[in-house]
Amino acid sequence: MRRPGAVRAAGGRPLPHRDTEDTTEHKMKMHARTLMAAAALAFATLAGTGCAVVRGQESAGAYVDDAATTTAVKAKFVEDRTVDAGAIRVETLNGTVQLSGFAKSNAEKAQAEYLARNTKGVRSVRNDIIVRP
User: Fold this and answer.
1) Which residues neighbour 130 within 8 Å (Cβ) at sequence distance 6 or greater?
2) Cβ–Cβ contacts within 10 Å for residue 86, how many?
């Protein structure tokens, strides 16, 4: 049966109608558009919330500052031979440094706190180090 206005191939067969063409390419384009829209929405959400970090609802800038403070405290521990940097954990949140882990003496515990307190960016220190001889 011949459709009126159908374009015919060389052998007399009608070429596939645009509606019956393989839709795989069309589906891939739609999938790509959907992914792009989702990415744009995610970006807009992050930008609109000020890039809040879940940890303490601090901003991304404050998170970076805390990470720099933690690194500075750990570096001081490594430089000081009286403090075992591998045995003491350092965490910073909004400028408050928490020290935890184990020290071999009260002097080591006190020195770790002193080093942390005298580090740029530290507002306060919570010393939860346990002395274990």
Assistant:
1) 101, 102, 103
2) 10
* pTM, 2 dp: 0.57
CA angle 115, 120, 122 (to 5 degrees): 75
Which residue, chain included where needed, has tokens 């191939």?
9
Up-side HSE of residue 28: CA atoms within 13 Å toward CB? 4
Can you tell me the distance from the alpha carbon of 15 to that of 21, in angstroms, rounded to the nearest whole number?
A: 10
CA dihedral sign, ordered 45, 46, 50, 52 = positive
Q: How far apart are the first and last CA of the chain?
A: 96
pLDDT bucket at 2, cuts 50 / 70 / 90: low
3-state secondary structure (DSSP) of residue 53: strand
Confidence of residue 27 (pLDDT cuts 50, 70, 90): confident
Closest by CA to 88, choosing from 77, 80, 97, is: 77
The CA dihedral of 68, 72, 77, 79, to the nearest 10 degrees, is: 140
